[in-house]
Amino acid sequence: MIELNTVMLRADNEQDLSRAAELIKSGELVGIPTETVYGLGADGLNVSAVAKIFKAKGRPSDNPLILHISEPSQMEQLCHDIPEKGWLLAKKFWPGPLTMVLPAKPIVPKVTTANLDTVAIRCPKTESTRKLIELAGVPIAAPSANASGKPSTTTAEHVLHDMDGRIAAILDGGACEVGLESTIVDLSGNKPVLLRPGGITPEELLDVLGELEIDKAVLGQIDSDAVVRAPGMKYKHYAPNAEVIIVSGNANDAASYVRRRYNEQTAVLCFDEELSLYEGLNPTSYGSEEDSMSLCAGLFSALRTLDKPEIHTIYARCPSGGGAAYAVRNRLNKAAGFCIVSAKEDTE
Ligand code: TXA
Ligand code: MG
Predict the structure, then answer these.
(1) Which of 7, 99, 139, 323 could form a disulfide with 122 if both were Cys (CB 3.0 to 4.6 A apart)?
(2) 108 C-alpha vs ligand 1 centroid, how far in Å?
(3) Residue 37, C-beta contacts closer than 8 angstroms, at least 6 positions apart
(4) What angle separates helix 84-93 from helix 202-209, to the nearest 10 degrees?
(5) Rounded Cα–Cα distance for residues 31 and 153 (Å)
(6) Weakly modelled stretches of the chain, pLDDT under 70
């Protein structure tokens, strides 16, 4: 792969936005800010530009991409048979952290959908990115802008770390507000199916849809050769190099469990409220247990901070409950490869 000189551009500068749009139009890759995580953007209708995304990320070609649009009405150019429920969701949650899977029109290249008949569509909340899509005049295909398998990127610096020399530019829009990827709902079948939890909660979706199936890949482990509806969900994901182990149980039991195993190759990832329990163990907190949105916003950044060669094991605390905690649990479970230990059993 030819080394590129990756240029840092500013999302709040008009000239920089135009420059990013020109790069997209000419088939180059640009790291783009969204309210969820940074995306690795390219012209979603240009076969060779989309192929570059897979190469830059090291992404398996059977993992389809999301097309980002600047206006909900653009769904019609890319999808057919859009159900009433699709328009209802768009009205309620767009622009915002929701992705809908719908039947694809032939204009969408097969490389973008990884040969599926459906395509994933999202209208992001970040205004500068919608402006960029408008200036480029094409839907922007963008997976999360991390090296494949690594935690998603929530700052321009994270993107530079993973993609320096592999992409033409990065549009710096500051830290992402949500911090976890969008909620994905599949509307291409008889019943709406939740494929990935995110900033829009299952409860909010149910309110609009009246019914919602949860895909089995969402909270359970699946075989790597299993056929799943969101192909990306079958891979070990969001993971630093270290082994992540989720320690369940109450705060005190968990702290004792970790203390018994702590050494210099160990790191602790916990809630703000638990920091004092890990005194002397150099704990990292990723947000407040009482505020799931803060956990969403802090998780990936904390996992990246702990991704150091000397760290072999990360003991992590995981929130319980619904709402945004559901999405945090899903990502941590995947980062841990579903390795969950019970602190209580250890003390008995
Ligand atoms: O918040 C987000 O969604 C971010 C920002 C950049 O928009 N993007 C993102 O993209 O998370 P990515 O590629 O990392 O995750 C997209 C997920 C993958 O698991 C993929 O398999 C699934 O969406 N997906 C894409 N197209 C699909 C389709 N037609 N049917 C089912 N799943 C699909
Ligand atoms: Mg991703």
Answers:
(1) 99
(2) 15
(3) 144, 145, 146, 152, 153, 154, 176, 178, 179, 180, 181, 300
(4) 130
(5) 10
(6) 1, 219, 221-236, 345-348
pLDDT at 97: 98
Tokens representing 114? 């990884």
266: helix, strand or coil? strand
Ligand nearest to the CA of 148: 2
At 222 the pLDDT is 53
The residue whose CA is least distant from atom 18 of ligand 1 is 232
The Å distance, Cα 291 to ligand 2 centre, comes to: 24
Tell which atom from ligand 1 comes closest to the C-alpha of 65. Answer: 25
Structure token pair of residue 107: 């204009």
Single-letter amino acid code for the residue at 41: G
Distance in angstroms (rounded) separating the CA atoms of residues 261 and 254: 11
Query: For residue 234, what pLDDT is reported?
Result: 55
Asked if 118 and 220 count as a contact pair (C-beta separation under 8 A), the reply is no
Alpha-carbon gap, residue 207 to 84, rounded angstroms: 15
